[in-house]
């Protein structure tokens, strides 16, 4: 489900020139509405804020303990942890970031890389504190191992 929204001068095109094969599918619209309803009723946005703030705090603690951890940023449950070779020069730690990602993956936590050397952390909206702690222990373990090389 999606929408295209822009200023009118940008939307000046022939009717029908922006269409989709499955646009307006009633089943997709009902499913989308039910997802929005579940997000509200199950307080998923509040959980995302709570767990995300906790994760940012924990990653910032890691930043103090490991020179490999550069910038830590994000909002809600979309977080980025930059891995650097040198904090002063901000030289990208591509190989180190890849190694942290793979060590985490092998231990059951799926994170991906974005940009030059940033770990992208994007858990589901329903993640619990126990699951967050479990994941952070694995990621921190991988960071520790790579830092000690």
Structure, explained:
The chain is an alpha+beta fold and 149 residues long. Helices cover 47% and strands 17% of the residues. It has a domain at 44-147: Alpha-Beta Complex (Aspartate Aminotransferase, domain 1). The protein has helices at residues 26-41, 44-65, 94-106, 129-147, and strands at residues 69-75, 78-86, 91-92, 112-114, 118-121. Strands 1, 2, 3, 4 and 5 form a 5-stranded antiparallel beta sheet that branches. α3 packs across α4 (129-147). It is globular. It starts with 25 loop residues before the first helix and ends with a helix.
Q: Secondary-structure map with pairings?
A:
Blueprint: H1 26-41, H2 44-65, E1 69-75, E2 78-86, E3 91-92, H3 94-106, E4 112-114, E5 118-121, H4 129-147
Antiparallel strand pairs: 1-2, 2-3, 2-5, 4-5
Helix pairs in contact: 2-4, 3-4
Helix content: 40-55%
The CATH superfamily name of one domain is Aspartate Aminotransferase, domain 1
Could you list the spans in which at least 5 consecutive residues all have pLDDT below 50?
none
Rg of Cα set: 20 Å
Count of individual beta strands:
5
Order of helices and strands: HHEEEHEEH
Q: How large is the count of helical segments?
A: 4
Major sheet summary line: 5 strands, antiparallel
């Amino acid at each position: 489900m999606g929408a295209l929204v822009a200023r009118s001068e940008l939307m000046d095109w022939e009717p029908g020139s922006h269409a989709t094969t499955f646009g307006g599918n009633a089943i997709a619209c009902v499913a989308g509405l039910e997802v929005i309803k579940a997000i509200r009723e199950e307080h998923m946005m509040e959980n995302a804020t709570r767990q995300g703030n906790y994760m940012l705090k924990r990653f910032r603690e890691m930043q103090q303990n490991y020179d490999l951890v550069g910038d830590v940023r994000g909002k809600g449950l979309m977080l980025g942890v930059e891995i650097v070779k040198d904090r002063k020069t901000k030289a990208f730690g591509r190989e180190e970031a890849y190694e942290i990602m793979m060590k985490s993956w092998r231990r059951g936590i799926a994170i991906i890389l974005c940009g030059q050397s940033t770990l992208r952390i994007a858990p589901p909206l329903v993640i619990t504190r126990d699951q967050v702690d479990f994941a952070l222990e694995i990621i921190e373990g991988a960071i520790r191992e790579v830092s000690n090389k």
